[in-house]
Every structure is written in structure tokens, then in C-alpha cells.
Design brief:
The complex is a heterodimer of chains A (257) and B (482).
Chain A lengths: L1 E10 L2 E11 L4 E5 L6 H9 L4 E10 L2 E2 L5 H6 L2 E4 L6 E5 H15 L7 H14 L10 E2 L5 H15 L3 E5 L7 H13 L6 E5 L3 H6 L4 E6 L2 E6 L2 H9 L18
Parallel strand pairs in A: 3-10, 3-11, 6-9, 9-10
Antiparallel strand pairs in A: 1-2, 1-4, 4-5, 7-8, 11-12
Helix pairs in contact in A: 5-6
Chain B lengths: L7 H10 L17 H10 L4 H15 L40 H10 L3 H7 L11 H13 L3 E4 H7 L1 H7 L10 H9 L2 E7 L9 E2 L13 E7 L4 E7 L10 E2 L2 E6 L4 E8 L13 E10 L5 E8 L4 E4 L2 E4 L5 E10 L4 E10 L5 E11 L3 E10 L7 E11 L4 E10 L5 E10 L2 H9 L4 H12 L1 H4 L4 H15 L5
Parallel strand pairs in B: 2-4, 3-5, 4-7, 5-8, 6-9, 7-9, 8-10, 9-11, 9-12, 10-13, 11-14, 12-14, 13-15, 14-16, 15-17, 16-18, 17-19
Antiparallel strand pairs in B: 1-2
Classes of the chains: A alpha/beta (257), B alpha/beta (482).
Bound molecules: adenosine-5'-triphosphate and magnesium ion.
Chain lengths: 257, 482
């Protein structure tokens, strides 16, 4: 599904990712953990194609295609979905309107007929039940005035509607209360599918109690410094990142590395 | 705008490009403006004496006036002696013979806007008798209005058929000496629309210039007068979302609205005159005076406008809140792209007691677009308990455009409540990235965000107009980001 090879990327002239190697097969769930500022969101942004991150070397293959050659919207239409760490507000644009436009843009691209308003509403209301969201959210402006937790749920609602092939969830668990965390995890679990892969960026074992990953990776100072099974997350929970040493502070300390 | 050849001459030479003959027809006056010009216009139109006198008074005032310099727009000086002030309604021979002769860029735009084929031809000025028989549509329409006693006709027709109404109301809202362009218009106006709604009548349909077939080629000095008598209601639509071909660079229209006791006038405009090319050459200068007078108690006048066209727009639709408990509203979206300039806004003049006004202005600047919002709220001494709410938001796309806000507030009565809110924001890179990440193209993303920004204004537009306006913004912004 996804093969990242020796990926280096910078923001401005500041190198952030310094040689990432990662392979994600169809149906797998990978958790990425690591200290603040280590490059987790940057990696997520590179996968989604955000323009302020420059890939300086390395390659990303997605479903046999060169992912880096695709525009942001082309990646989305090819099934790449990013749940934002900080969801964006769009004043005046109805949540339902954005969702319908997005779904139909993707369907059109795949040669499927566009859904009309009735069909779409039926679909989205169904997904909202799953996320235990109030229908009134549909008619509010995208994320405007939403609480932190509501925004995160809204991201997963979008994922449920768009049914991506590769979902990257950037700290979707942050800011959720315990009940909301269970709901979001349920939503995510219901979307697990042999043809769908997920990358979960998180700081907490908590989320992984609900969504069981196949692999856990530790990202520090722009590199994956350790990989393992679910037990690695438990270990981190106990030990923190001190063992990584200076590298883990996320600052440019060791110039030689 | 550095190249001063981009004046009327440029437009004229463009006409040659399109193969027009500009030989002076028998029924056109030579270039230039003098008292004789004014007399000849009036004579050609067979106007009553009072109107000629009125025009002449306006002309004499105009001679002593200067174009306003306070507006933050820039253009080479206009030579008022180089304009043809009267030509008989053009026969269709002058236009292109078929769509094949029309500028392909214009046709592309029509297509994007989804304008039906036969309408494209009309808009582009193609002889349409063969393609579209609008007479029947217009006739059934007129019958329906006549049943209710509504008068809806060209201004010239009103002068002949209802001179007493014209005499009573013309210039009663915008006096001839009001400003330079209004004075010029009063002296030489060619034609326009006239509406009268009798007492107690609710006009059963939106009145639109589109249906008034004899309004074609009303020329550059258009005059509109709308009178809503006691307890009546009318909604009037001006303009069209499609860019219209026009040979005149300078447009100086005057619109006067009169609402008597308990009457309501809703006036919606979508203005999309030719804005010039990317360098700003050849676009239309639109210097308009629009004013409504809430003359009766409990009357209401609403202006809603979507301005996307013209090289330069100078326009301040205003309301005089004379009657007690009267209401004035102004909802505006103005977009400037490429080298367009707009100086727009409104004036709310509170004179009656318990008068209320609302101003919602949304400005969007892209490219090298340059715009200013200028709003005056004046509360007169006698205006007890007057209320105003003003909200003025600017959205910038890119970093070479500009937006300025100039609110003027004059309060002479201590019981007044005046609220002003303003914001300026840049379209967010994160918003665009988010929309695209969900699968929308850059253009759809921009269009969606901009339309969201304008929502409060669009919801005031009649339904069909609102849908067209949304599409129009999308098309006008194409290529402005990324
Ligand atoms: N636009 C930017 N300009 C400058 N530096 C940036 C920018 N974006 C990210 N960075 C830097 O890149 C580094 C990695 O940031 P990133 O957001 O990827 O970290 P993260 O691992 O997601 O952290 P967190 O756990 O706090 O979300 C940080 O040092 C950050 O300051
Ligand atoms: Mg992050």
C-alpha cells in the first residue's frame, strides 16, 4: 500500500525529516509515537501533499504510484485521507455542503454517479449515528464554534463518509474526553478493513487500548528510532522518551546525526 | 493604469477590431457637450418643456462642478467633449451577425456561467429576432402587471405617458446638483426604467430589466425611478451575471427610489460590466449614484449588490430614513481582481424617530485589485432612538491586493446606538489545504471559501440571483490563487 524510502523533508531551510523508512501493507494499522516536535505532523503533511513542506530526497510509493508526483486533491481522490491535528474552521460554509462537495468530487473522479441531496443526507445521517453526533452539526459552518472534541469527531465523520484507503489520523485522540475517545475509537474500528490501512499519530497508550495497532514506531528528531508491536507503546508509557537521549528533545542538538 | 492611451480611444479602436463602423449615422449627435446638445437630446425625445428646463438647470450646475477627488481610485482624465451623448437606439445591424463573430473569451465565460444559448446571443449583442422571440414573454408579463395598476416601462415611455409622476418625483431623491456625475446624468440621460406601484399593491413578481425588451441600449447615462406608494411592495432586479458587451467606457447612472408610508422596496443588483484585461486596459468606469428615500413612516428600502465587474466602480447606494420607524439596509459583496478598483459603500441618513439601518459589506480583493469601503452613518438631531449596525469584512487573496475601510459616523442625537464591526482576513493556506485534502480542486476550494464569506449577503438575494451570483464569483476568481 505505502512504501516510504529514505525520506528527507524540510520546512523552509530547516530539515525536519531525516531519512524515514516505513512500509504499510493493506489492512494494517501503524501507530506513530514520539516527542513533541519530532516530525510526526510533518510526515503526515508530506503524505497529504502540503506545499510548505519540501521533500529534499527519498521516495513514497502509494498503491504502485509515485505519491509525490500527485497534487493534494489527486492524492485525496486516490484515497489518502488526513485527519488534522488542528481542524480548520471555514466560516459560512455548511458542514454538510463541504462533505457533499468532497464526496461527489471523489465519486466523480472514480467514475461513480454523484449523490443527490437526499441520497447524501441518508448516508451522512447514518454515519453520524455511528459517531453519536447531533444532526444540527451538519448545518453549522465547518468547525466554526465547535468544541475541541467536536472538531475531532467531525474529522472522523468525514473519514467515515469518504471511506479512504489510507487514513492518517494526526492526534485525533488529543482533547477528547473518555466517552468521546471511545466513540471515536469505535468509529475508527468500524472502518477497519482488509483493504484500508491506517496511520495513527498519538501520544497516549489510551487510544491504542481501543484501537489495537499492528505496529508501533517511535519517531524522534526526524527518524524512526524504534519499531515494534503493541507492547512498545506500553513500554513507552512507563519509560517516556528519556532513553532516546538528546535526539528526543526535537531540537537540533547533535549536528553529526 | 500607467498607459494613458487606455482611455476612450482604446475602446473605440477595439470597436474597429471587431469590425464595427463608427460612421455617424443620420440620427446621432456629433461628439461633445454643450447647451445645444442638451436641447437636441430633449427635442429628439419629444420631451415636455419642464424636463428640458430641468436638464438645462442640471447642465449649468455641472459646468461649475469638478469630478470628486476623494475616492481612492485612479484613472486618466476623461474628456467629456469626446463622448457622443445621443444616438438613436441602435438597430441590430450594428452588432455581430452571429455568435461566430463574438469574442471567444466572452463565449467561454457564458458557457461557464451556464447561460442558455439563446440568451448568450442577446447578451453578446447578436441580432436575435431570428433566435429568440421575447415579445410574447414580455407581453404576458405586462398584462399581468397592468391588471394590478403597476407601471413598468422605459423612462422615455413614462415621460410621454405619465409626465405628472415623472415631474413629481424626478430629482426628488438625487437633486441635480448632488454630485458631478449625477448632474451630468441629469443633463444628458438617455433612457432607463420607470416603476410605479399603486397603494396597497404587492408586485406579484420580481421586476427585472431583462424582461423589459425595449430597454436595450439604454446607453451610458441611465436613469431609473421607482416609486412605491403607500402599503405597497416591490422587488427589483438590475443587471445580469453575464458580462455584457458595451461600447461605452464611462457609465454614470442615477437610480432614485421613493418609498411612501409603509411601503417596501428591495433593489438587487448584480453588476458584471467588462473589467478590462489583466493589465486593466479597456474596462468600464462605473460611476453611479443610487439613493432611496424612505419618505413615509414604517417604510423600508433594502439595497443588495454583488459587484464583480467594471475597471473602476464608484458607487454608494444610500438610504434617507426620513419617515419615523423607517428601515434602511445595505448588503454588499464587492470583488476586485487583476487591476480592478472599487470605491464603494453606503450612506444611511437617519432623520426620523426610531429609524433603523443595517450595513453588511463584504469586500474581496485578489490579484492587484484595490478596494475601499466608505460608509457614512449620520444621525440627525431629530432622530430619536436611531439604531445602526455596521459590519464590514474584507478578504484578501494573495499579497498584492489591498482593502481599506473608511467609516464616517456623525451622531447628533444622544439616544442613538451605532455599532461598527470590521475585520480583514487573508484566505488561509490551511483552509485551502484542508478543502483540497478532502478532494476539491483549488478553484472549487477558493470559490467555496469565498462564498462562505459572502453568505450573509447572498441570502438577501432572490433565490435564482443568489445561485448565479455564487457561480459568478467562482468564475471571476479563476486563476487568482495558486
Ligand atoms: N511552518 C513551520 N515553520 C517552522 N518550523 C516548523 C514549521 N512547521 C513545523 N516546524 C517545525 O518542525 C518540527 C516538527 O514539527 P511537527 O509539527 O511535525 O512535530 P510533531 O511531531 O507533530 O509534534 P507534536 O507532537 O507537538 O504535534 C518542529 O520543530 C516545528 O517547530
Ligand atoms: Mg503534531
Amino acid at each position: 500500500m505505502l512504501i516510504i524510502k529514505d525520506l528527507h523533508a524540510s520546512v523552509g531551510d530547516k530539515p525536519i525529516l531525516k531519512g524515514i523508512n516505513l512500509t504499510v501493507n493493506a489492512g494494517e494499522v501503524h501507530a506513530i509515537m514520539g516527542p513533541n516536535g519530532s516530525g510526526k505532523s510533518t510526515l503526515s503533511n508530506v503524505l497529504a501533499g502540503r506545499e510548505n513542506v519540501t521533500v529534499t530526497s527519498g521516495s513514497i510509493e502509494y498503491l504502485g504510484q509515485d505519491l509525490l508526483a500527485l497534487e493534494v486533491e489527486e492524492r485525496a481522490r486516490a484515497g489518502v485521507f488526513l485527519a488534522f491535528q488542528y481542524p480548520v474552521e471555514i466560516p459560512g460554509v455548511g458542514n454538510v455542503y463541504l462533505l457533499k462537495a468532497a464526496l461527489n468530487a471523489q465519486r466523480k473522479h472514480r467514475g461513480l454517479p454523484e449523490l443527490d441531496a437526499m441520497e447524501f443526507l441518508a448516508l451522512v445521517k447514518d454515519k453520524m449515528k455511528l459517531m453519536e453526533m447531533n444532526e444540527s452539526m451538519l448545518y453549522r459552518a465547518v468547525n466554526e464554534g465547535f468544541s475541541g472534541g467536536e472538531k475531532k469527531r467531525n474529522e472522523i465523520l468525514q473519514m467515515a463518509v469518504l471511506e479512504p484507503k489510507l487514513a492518517i489520523l494526526d492526534e485525533t485522540d488529543s482533547g477528547l474526553d473518555i466517552d468521546a475517545l471511545k466513540i471515536v475509537a469505535n468509529g475508527v474500528n468500524s472502518l477497519r478493513h482488509p483493504e484500508r490501512s491506517m496511520i495513527l499519530v498519538t501520544h497516549y497508550q489510551r487510544l491504542l487500548d481501543y484501537i489495537k495497532p499492528d505496529y508501533v514506531h517511535v519517531l524522534a528528531a526526524g527518524r524512526i528510532v524504534r519499531s515494534g508491536g503493541p507492547e512498545l507503546a506500553h513500554e513507552l508509557e512507563k519509560q517516556g522518551y528519556a532513553w532516546i537521549g538528546n535526539e528526543g528533545s526535537g531540537q537540533e542538538v547533535s549536528s553529526g546525526s | 493604469m500607467s498607459d494613458s492611451a487606455s482611455t476612450l480611444e482604446a475602446i473605440i479602436s477595439q470597436e474597429y477590431q471587431h469590425g464595427f463602423e463608427t460612421s455617424v449615422e443620420a440620427d446621432a449627435l456629433p461628439r461633445g457637450l454643450s447647451e445645444d446638445t442638451v436641447r437636441m437630446i430633449s427635442a429628439k425625445k419629444n420631451e415636455p418643456e419642464f424636463l428640458l428646463e430641468w436638464r438645462l438647470a442640471a447642465f449649468r450646475r455641472w459646468l461649475d462642478m469638478k469630478p470628486p477627488e476623494w475616492a481612492s481610485v485612479h484613472h486618466p482624465p476623461i474628456d467629456y467633449q469626446d463622448i457622443i451623448y445621443y444616438s438613436a437606439p441602435k438597430s441590430q445591424k450594428d452588432g455581430p451577425k452571429s455568435l461566430d463573430e463574438v469574442d471567444p473569451e466572452l463565449l467561454k465565460t457564458y458557457e461557464k456561467l451556464g447561460i442558455p444559448l439563446h440568451e448568450r446571443a442577446i447578451l453578446a449583442g447578436v441580432a436575435v429576432d431570428a433566435v429568440f422571440d421575447s415579445v410574447s414573454v414580455a407581453t404576458t408579463f405586462k398584462d399581468k402587471l397592468a391588471e394590478k395598476g403597476i407601471i413598468f416601462c422605459s423612462f422615455s415611455e413614462a415621460v410621454q405617458e405619465h409626465p405628472e409622476l415623472v415631474r413629481q418625483y424626478l430629482g426628488s431623491v438625487v437633486p441635480v446638483q448632488d454630485n458631478f456625475y449625477a448632474a451630468l446624468n441629469s443633463a444628458v440621460f438617455s433612457d432607463g426604467s420607470f416603476v410605479y406601484i399603486p397603494p396597497g399593491v404587492r408586485c406579484p413578481m420580481e421586476l427585472s430589466t431583462y424582461f423589459r425588451i425595449n430597454a436595450k441600449n439604454t446607453g451610458q447615462f441611465e436613469r431609473t425611478l421607482i416609486i412605491a406608494d403607500r402599503d405597497s411592495y416591490v422587488s427589483y432586479l438590475e443587471g445580469c451575471t453575464a458580462p455584457m458587451r458595451d461600447e461605452n467606457q464611462l457609465h454614470a447612472a442615477v437610480v432614485e427610489l421613493v418609498a411612501l408610508e409603509n411601503a417596501q422596496i428591495k433593489y438587487s443588483t448584480v453588476q458584471n460590466w467588462y473589467p478590462g484585461d489583466k493589465e486593466g486596459r479597456g474596462g468600464i468606469y462605473n460611476f453611479v449614484t443610487k439613493r432611496g428615500d424612505c419618505r413615509g413612516a414604517h417604510s423600508k428600502i433594502s439595497w443588495t449588490q454583488v459587484e464583480t465587474g467594471s475597471a473602476i466602480t464608484w458607487k454608494y447606494p444610500s438610504v434617507i430614513l426620513r419617515g419615523d420607524h423607517s428601515v434602511g439596509e445595505f448588503y454588499s459583496v464587492a470583488l476586485t481582481n487583476h487591476r480592478q478598483q472599487a470605491d464603494t459603500g453606503t450612506k444611511m441618513i437617519h432623520m426620523g424617530k426610531n429609524t433603523r439601518s443595517t450595513i453588511i459589506s463584504k469586500g474581496i480583493s485578489a490579484g492587484f485589485g484595490h478596494q475601499a469601503y466608505r460608509g457614512l452613518v449620520r444621525i440627525a438631531r431629530a432622530a430619536q432612538n436611531a439604531r445602526n449596525y455596521t459590519q464590514c469584512d474584507s478578504l484578501l487573496l494573495g499579497d498584492r491586493c489591498a482593502a481599506h475601510t473608511f467609516p464616517y459616523i456623525e451622531v447628533k442625537n444622544a439616544s442613538a446606538k451605532v455599532e461598527h464591526e470590521a475585520s480583514t482576513s487573508r484566505i488561509g493556506e490551511d483552509q485551502l489545504f484542508f478543502c483540497r485534502q478532502r478532494g476539491l480542486t483549488m478553484e472549487d476550494a477558493v470559490s467555496m471559501i469565498v462564498n462562505g464569506f459572502c453568505k450573509e449577503v447572498f441570502k438577501e438575494l432572490p433565490m435564482e440571483f443568489a445561485v448565479e451570483a455564487q457561480k459568478l464569483l467562482g468564475v471571476s476568481l479563476e486563476g487568482s490563487v495558486g
